[in-house]
Amino acid sequence: MNNRAIDYITEDFYESLSFMDGEMPDLDTVRDLFFEDGALFNLSFGKPITYTVESFTRSIEDSIEDGQLTQFMQRELYSKTEIFGRVAQRVSVYEYSFAYYEIDNLPRGVNYIQFIQVDDLWRITSMAWNDESANYRVPVDLMNI
What does the alpha-carbon distance between residue 17 and residue 99 come to, in Å, rounded to a whole number? Predict the structure, then answer.
């Protein structure tokens, strides 16, 4: 099975969230990449933060509107995708910055993304991620997948 379709969807997801000061992220594309409501889980803090795709995109819009978020960049560093039939899972190591320009030693994290194939199109059903912290470092084996 060719992983390229899932590569493109993942790339589209990260690129759609990224935007420079004075611009807006492409949140309509983010919504289009998910199957139905989707489920997103941010495990980077004490308690899991749960979202549907709509509440996730709305929280980004609210953060931009109130000035908390003025620019953002996120990109995939490494990945591994497993596909069986019409289900798939991707381990995606990412880095991010709240300044769009590139800097050294950007914060990283790991995102586990699940997909299903519907009408010959792959769509994201869920994702769960955890940013690096003092307690959690991206394992070396995930940086070499």
Answer: 13
**Cα Rg of the chain, angstroms:** 15
Dihedrals φ, ψ of 65, to 5°? -60, -40
For each of the chain's 145 residues, which pLDDT tens digit applies?
Answer: 568 999 999 999 999 999 999 899 999 999 999 999 999 999 999 899 999 999 999 999 999 999 999 999 999 999 999 999 999 999 999 999 997 666 778 999 999 999 999 999 999 999 999 999 999 999 888 887 6
As to burial, measured by CB atoms within 10 angstroms (0-12 exposed, 13-18 middle, 19+ buried), residue 119 is: exposed
Complete DSSP assignment for 36-58 = EEEEEEE-SSSS-EEE-HHHHHH
Q: Which sign, positive or negative, has the C-alpha torsion 41, 80, 132, 28?
A: negative
